[in-house]
């Protein structure tokens, strides 16, 4: 097991679906109190010994998590740097409206971080309902990607992605050839998208998807946030210009992927980072039925069996250079088929309290290396 999504638990301590409310601790911290959705207090585990665990070296005695605070309130508190907030970090990055303040002021230089976080954002297409390639391409060409990026912070948020493998996964990465007509500057190519929609209208195989897109509307599932209130309006305006209707469906972030799994929308916004330095932790989990994070009903595509064969061949290829070529080719194929629409290779900006030490963006996790963080006296 490469990630801490799993852990051995004595059978007597397994409380089923209530386990997350009071998980057993075998590490340096344990839960003292938990008020679901509000606060979580963690303290040192008196049953844990440093001698038993040479990897972890805790530098803190107590960790208090606060949930449900508005983005603007969090940023205001971090910028003010008062009281207990001097010893604070945040899980979410800075909101777009705070970036200019934090990155133009020298007083924040020792507290701010900025960099690529290893993630790629993307929009999943549900191939059960949007089963027409021309419509999927039209959606991609119609989006004003630059307007979306500007709305959430501009270049601070990242660079436009050409595929699903992050550039920092260097051996497996190659810039994909993008659909003809996609504007390199991220602006919408409305006329090219309209031409694709006209093509779809005349194709009997696209009849159901065309009716859904132009009459009923495509349901777009995404995490509810202040930023997405702005983003979804750009999506709706961009696609309206080519005759496509969008039904906005914001979902609480904590419920997002469970909702994708149980009742996938026609379009779903997601993000992914590699678990280790191989695209085997990107393409299979995102696009194979049993991969764990494939929500787009890709197995409804007639080409799915052939795709699976190619993925399985790449998984067992022991020549690393040859395997890398196979992942690059599969990434290109996914881009050509528009099973999902790449968004950005994402960057993240954070601000920590003035007493926090050794807080840096840890690329393998896309956040801080929390176990290394300490506090000044």
From TrEMBL:
Pfam families: SBP_bac_5 (PF00496). Residues 6-291 form the Solute-binding protein family domain. One of its GO terms (biological process) is peptide transport. InterPro entries: SBP_5 (IPR039424), SBP_5_dom (IPR000914). GO terms for molecular function: peptide transmembrane transporter activity. This is Unannotated protein. It comes from freshwater metagenome.
């Amino acid at each position: 097991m490469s990630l801490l999504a799993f852990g051995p638990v004595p059978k007597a301590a397994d409380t089923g679906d209530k386990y997350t409310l009071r998980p057993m601790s075998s590490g340096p911290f344990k839960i003292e109190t938990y008020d679901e959705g509000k606060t979580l207090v963690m303290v040192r585990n008196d049953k844990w010994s440093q001698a038993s665990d040479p990897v972890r070296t805790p530098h803190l005695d107590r960790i208090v998590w606060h949930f449900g605070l508005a983005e603007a309130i969090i940023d205001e508190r971090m910028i003010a740097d008062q009281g207990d907030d001097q010893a604070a970090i945040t899980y979410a990055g800075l909101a777009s409206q705070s970036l200019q303040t934090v990155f133009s002021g020298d007083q924040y230089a020792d507290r701010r971080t900025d960099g690529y976080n290893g993630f790629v954002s993307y929009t999943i297409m549900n191939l059960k309902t949007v089963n027409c390639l021309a419509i999927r391409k039209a959606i991609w060409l119609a989006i004003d990607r630059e307007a979306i990026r500007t709305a959430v912070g501009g270049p601070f948020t990242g660079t436009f992605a050409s595929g699903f493998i992050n550039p920092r996964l260097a051996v497996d990465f190659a810039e994909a050839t993008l659909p003809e007509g996609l504007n390199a500057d991220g602006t919408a190519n409305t006329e090219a998208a309209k031409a694709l929609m006209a093509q779809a209208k005349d194709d009997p195989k696209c009849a159901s998807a065309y009716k859904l897109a132009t009459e009923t509307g495509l349901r777009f599932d995404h995490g509810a946030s202040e930023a997405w209130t702005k983003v979804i309006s750009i999506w709706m305006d961009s696609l309206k210009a080519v005759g496509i209707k969008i039904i906005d469906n914001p979902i609480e972030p904590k419920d997002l992927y469970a909702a994708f799994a149980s009742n996938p929308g026609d379009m779903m916004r997601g993000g992914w980072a590699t678990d280790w330095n191989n695209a085997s932790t990107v393409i299979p989990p995102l696009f194979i039925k049993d991969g764990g994070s494939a929500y787009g009903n890709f197995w409804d595509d007639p080409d799915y069996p052939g795709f699976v064969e190619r993925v399985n061949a790449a998984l067992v290829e022991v020549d690393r250079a040859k395997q890398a070529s196979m992942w690059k080719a599969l990434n290109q194929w996914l881009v050509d088929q528009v099973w999902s629409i790449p968004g950005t290779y994402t960057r993240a900006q954070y601000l920590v309290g003035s007493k926090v030490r050794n807080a840096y963006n840890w690329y393998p996790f896309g956040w801080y290396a929390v176990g290394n963080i300490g506090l000044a006296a």
